[in-house]
Structures are given as C-alpha cells and as structure tokens.
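ok so I'm stuck.
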Amino acid sequence: MRIHNHRPAVMSSISAMESPAENVFLQRHPLSLVGCQMGKTVTVLRLAGGKLLVHSTAHFSDEDIAAIRALGEPAWLLEATNFHDTLARHGRAAFPDIPYLVPPGFAAADALGAQAISSVADEWGDEIEVIELDGMPKIREHVLFHRPSKTLIVADLMFNLAPSASAWTKLFLRATAGLNHFPGTSRLFRLCIKDREAFRESLHRITALDFERVVVAHGEAITTEAKPRFLAALEWADVGS
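replied:
not stuck anymore, here's the structure
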C-alpha cells in the first residue's frame, strides 16, 4: 500500500531501540495518514565486522541518529522499495557520507547520490541475502534475509498492525487496502503485480529460506510461528504458491 505521496505526518521516534534477535535492532517512528497510525520501522543490522546496514529512512532526530551510531559504524543506508521515497531526503541528510542504496527507478536517486542495491550486495557475504520481488516493475521491492539471526525484513509486502491499533486505523486499512486481518498484504500491493509467475518465483525463493521472524516496515515484527503465519497471509491474499 502506498501512503507516501499523501504527505503523511511524521515526527521523531519516541521509543527505545528494540532487539528481537542478536545484531538486529528496531527503531520505531510514528507515521500517520488522515489519523491512521501506520508507524514505520527502521531496522538496523550489525554485521560481523561491526558495520551497520540501516534499512529504511525516517525523519531522524539527533537522538535517533545517536542511538544508531551507538550500535556501531553506519556503513550503508538502504530503501527497499520505490514506494518509500517521501523521507529519503531526511534519511540522506542524517547519513550523508555512506552509500545510499535504492531499487532501480527510485525517485530522486541521482539528486541524492544513490546507487543500486545490487552494487554492494556482495560486500555482505553470507550474512545478508537480497531477493527482489520480480514482476512488480513499479515497486521493485527488495526483501532482505539476515542469515545469522534467521530474520526476514520486508517493506510493503506485508503489514502487521498490533491488536491495540485504533478502530479508525483498522477501519481505514480495511476500506482502502483490503486488510481485514494481520499479518496481511494490501490490495494496492497486489494490484501492482504485473507478472504473477515471476512474482511467485521470487516468493518461492523467499519461502524456501529458514527464517524464524519477520520484520515489517509498518507494524509489529512477527516473532512467533513467523513462517506459517507469513505463508498463510500470502495464501489469503492469493499471492502465495
């Protein structure tokens, strides 16, 4: 579901860094659209050498930046989908001296000095596997798998709002995105699939991975029965195998 062109309200993060697994850290940022509290998660992966991959941009405050730097040396900033472009300038300003990695066709890539995700993926060795969701030429979402912690990181492929989400938020997502339960895949995301066979082949590569948790950009990380819940959500959305 693309929410960014509507200029959602943003503010600096208000919660401490969470760590659902070793060397995986989550920073929560508020993100709202017409009162719908979407939230946005920035995931920080610390590689064996101490370098950090910062997954997703946000309206980083000085405190947010300091919290990330306290974990290690920021070495890469990554945006995993062309739909996450609204806060790109804020993210780039927070980390101006490291490679900014984006999918092909990312808005303002040249202006922000960005480069393709594929150009540095080899630097991560066996620690991080990157799989692009094929068949979606407009979105070009890239899914990351952090092998040491068995953690899958997705952008808009799946939403997982908490049960405590407001009634308005649930109603809004049900009406606009067809999200009746969580985790789930939005209607707009499904409509962006232009080659279902290619998309399913990408999903097969992802579902073959031995992951134990799923971190989503919008909502809560899936930490219990993650793989069966992930597969069930794909089947419900009729995008699974």
